[in-house]
Amino acid sequence: MSHYETGLKEECGVFGIYDLDGGDVSRSVYYGLEALQHRGQESCGIAVSDTEGPKGRVKSCKGIGLLSEVFRPGKIEELNGNIGVGHVRYSTSGSLNVNNAQPLVLNYIKGSLALAHNGNLVNALELREEMENSGAIFHTTIDSEVIAYCIARERVKSDKIEDAVKKACDQIRGAFAIVLMSPRKLIGARDPYGLRPLCIGKRDNAYIFASEDCALHSIGAEFIRDVRPGEIVTVGTDGELRSTFMDSVVDPAKQARCIFEYIYFARLDSKIDGVSVYDARIRGGAALARSFPVEADLVVGVPDSGLASAKGYSEESGIPFGMAFHKNSYVGRTFIKPSQDERESSVRIKLSVIESVVRGKRIVLVDDSIVRGTTIGNLIRTLKRFGATEVHVRISSPPFLHPCYFGVDVPSNKQLIASSHSVEEIRKMIGADSLGYMPIEELQNMVGKDLPICKACFNSDYPMEVPTHEIRDLLEGC
């Protein structure tokens, strides 16, 4: 599937920085978000403030498109301040609307706050209805606004912003990584299950929160540690990191990191909760080779997330690894094309086969998932058109069978090819000579036995109570 098939989308990326020496942070936010652009390409935004300036004065800019499209020359220079948060977004229910872009900036009786959120709440609708009945007016359709209002409401009754964040986090349920900027503090919070990633970094006298540590490296910051599940970390004017935990924190054995961070979402050079994404994908490819061996001449991966798994398959099987595709990075994003035919045409333009590599070869084609089957089928046909004699497909995740409620845009069951077809039926539909999916029992081995993972989209074993399908269709995260 990789980045080219409509259906499964990346999540969102959050970033925040507080320079205690008073240096301007807008460029650091921009470059940090640029490193997280793979997590969201529909909209983006940056909000900054000056901790020494007038309380509550927040400068922000957000819009539809990539960072390079929204932040034209000169725009960053208008956003000066020493504390800032940023966000890159993919919507999880298809609403492409500038009002839903983040960060969300609220001005209220206690000043201001700017919030960036990655994830989905499972009780967002019930909280929203309660707030609307008490007079709240919502300007977006995202559950991130519910979180922001929750915090603002609790702040009126609390002595400190971090106390308000804690009270709010104990009311919300679901997946969340939050970076929040108040007039004098930067706060990071992670859901009690650890579903969404969030880490802490430091550069000179500046502290940073980011979805992945690759964003820290992009601005020359040092990784300190991951925010722990259920933890709220505050950076104040004294430069100390202060930590507190939500009352809703769960037993470590019941925590559940999203396995798709390691299979697909996270960048290859990131490390999440101590596990290298690259190493996890290598192990996944090796598991595929052991589970589904085949006689072949070459192992290739679908760029980008299938490449490391393909290398792992190659190393375990002894079949040479090769690069069969050229990826054109300068083609427009496929999701904005108005028809399925045009989207598929854009996919073909983005990914072309290198004929001299595949002609006359039996190919093992490794990818991260199959959602509807359209893209992998097109790639198989193209490989054979350019001379591949056989194409054996290996998928580094089990078949998608169930919806996700925590921020992964898995389509409804009727759109999931595996929910209504057997593996053999799918093989015939996509035109593969053989097809093997990652055995679900091998997923834990990708990250190691000590890191609990969420596999609910494969086996419906959700880590918490989830809403009905009807309610899910109304939810929108990030």
From TrEMBL:
Mg(2+) binds at residues 305, 367-368. Binds 1 Mg(2+) ion per subunit. The keyword Iron applies. This is Amidophosphoribosyltransferase. GO terms for molecular function: 4 iron, 4 sulfur cluster binding; amidophosphoribosyltransferase activity; magnesium ion binding. Pathway: Purine metabolism; IMP biosynthesis via de novo pathway; N(1)-(5-phospho-D-ribosyl)glycinamide from 5-phospho-alpha-D-ribose 1-diphosphate: step 1/2. It is an enzyme of class 2 (transferase). It catalyses: 5-phospho-beta-D-ribosylamine + L-glutamate + diphosphate = 5-phospho-alpha-D-ribose 1-diphosphate + L-glutamine + H2O. The keyword Nucleotidyltransferase does not apply. The active site is at residue 12. The lineage of its organism: Bacteria, Bacillati, Bacillota, Clostridia, Eubacteriales. The gene is purF. It holds the Pfam family GATase_7. In the C-terminal section; belongs to the purine/pyrimidine phosphoribosyltransferase family. NCBIfam families: purF. Keywords: 4Fe-4S, Glutamine amidotransferase, Glycosyltransferase, Iron, Iron-sulfur, Magnesium, Metal-binding, Purine biosynthesis, Transferase. Its EC number is 2.4.2.14.
